[in-house]
Amino acid sequence: MEIIGMDSELYKELAKKIDFITDYIVNQKQSDSKEDVDETWVDGYEVCTFLRISERTLQRLRSNGQVSYSIISGKSYYQIKEIKRLLEDRLIKSGNDCLDDLIKQHKQYNEVRRKNKPQ
Fold first, then answer.
1. Strand 41-43's sheet: what is its strand order?
2. What is the pLDDT, as a whole number, of residue 35?
3. Alpha carbon of 94 to those of 19, 22, 24, 82, 83: distances in Å?
4. How far is Cα of residue 105 from the mean position of the Cα atoms in its chain?
5. How far apart are the C-alpha atoms of 21 and 7, rounded to whole Å?
6. DSSP letters along 56-79, please?
């Protein structure tokens, strides 16, 4: 194994560059996520909680083919664009403020998960 020594000023400069690159990547992800909100997937629990509907109502929409969804590991996921369509078609009697809460809380949840993720 080879040991490489480094001047403290050089180390500080390298650390600043790494921090700059990290900030750039995080900002890019945030700007990309703003554009792709409709493509975001949320689970059934989030949909029920923030749209103030029961799990049975969501199940009925799935069974009647009124909402598209995906099942991963036994859990149902829905795209935000599908939830918007349900609201526009008045299949769910919640307002757009509930949808905004859903999107906002989902983003916060993802940020917390990302920060707590072991590296």
1. 41-43, 75-79, 70-72
2. 54
3. 43, 39, 37, 14, 10
4. 9
5. 21
6. HHHHHHHHTT-S--EEETTEEEEE
Name the DSSP class of 91.
S
Cα angle 62, 37, 33; round to 5: 140
Look at the block and give the residue holding tokens 């072991």: 118
Q: Which pLDDT does position 77 carry in this prediction?
A: 93
Q: Which of 3-7, 71-75, 95-99 has the lowest mean pLDDT?
A: 95-99
What CA–CA distance (Å, rounded) separates 56 from 41? 20
- Percentages helix, strand, coil for the chain (3-state, rounded to 5) are 65, 10, 25
Q: Distance between alpha carbon 67 and the CA centroid of its chain, in Å?
A: 19
Mean pLDDT of the chain: 83
Sign of CA dihedral 32, 37, 41, 44: positive
User: Which tokens belong to 43?
Assistant: 């689970």
Q: What six digits make up the tokens of 4?
A: 């490489």
pTM (two decimals): 0.58
| Secondary structure of residue 11 in the 3-state scheme | helix
* Tokens standing for residue 31: 């700007």
